[in-house]
Amino acid sequence: MLGQLGLLLTFQLVGEFVVTSLAIPFPGPLCGMALLLGYLCLRGGPSDKLFAVGSKLVDNLGLLFVPAGTAIVAYGALLARDGVAIIVALFVSTLAAIFISGIVADKVAAGRARIGEGHDRHL
């Protein structure tokens, strides 16, 4: 379990390193997640141990919202001044992410269906 957690943290560290060394205005942990996704695609998915560690992290995801709640209290003046703009930006970006994710999932599903049809013909 510790080794699998180390693997996840290594991908985060590599993402931070890539972003910092290339001076890319992109979150390092998100770059690490993209690298992890590529790694998992090449391997054919997560191992059982990695799946178990990931599940434990997701089960305890609520703990990560404590700093966000603290930030709301700490930045009350900012929220009072720009709260509407922040809420609109969050709402629009969430809708855009859901919309784009749906399009990508649809394209991937259609591509897999086409690959499956082509595979059936050659058998």
Give a verbal description of the structure:
It is a single chain. The chain folds into two domains: 59 residues; 58 residues. The protein is built from five helices and no strands. The termini are far apart. 85% of the residues lie in helices and 0% in strands. The protein is mostly helical. The protein is extended and about 55 Å long.
Top keywords for this entry?
123 residues, mainly alpha, 5 helices
Please describe the topology of this protein.
Layout lengths: L1 H21 L5 H16 L4 H12 L5 H10 L1 H46 L2
Helix pairs in contact: 1-2
| Count of separate DSSP helical elements | 5
Q: Low-confidence runs (pLDDT<50, min 5 residues)?
A: none
The major pleated sheet works out as: none
User: How much helix is in the residues?
Assistant: over 70%
The residue-averaged pLDDT reads 86
* Global Rg: 20 Å
Structural class: mainly alpha
Distance between the termini: 42 Å
Percent strand: under 5%
Instruction: Indicate how many domains the architecture comprises.
Output: 2
Please give the number of β-strands.
0
Shape assignment? extended
Sketch the topology as an H/E string, one letter per element.
HHHHH
Summarize the structure.
The chain has 123 residues and is mainly α. It contains five helices and no strands.
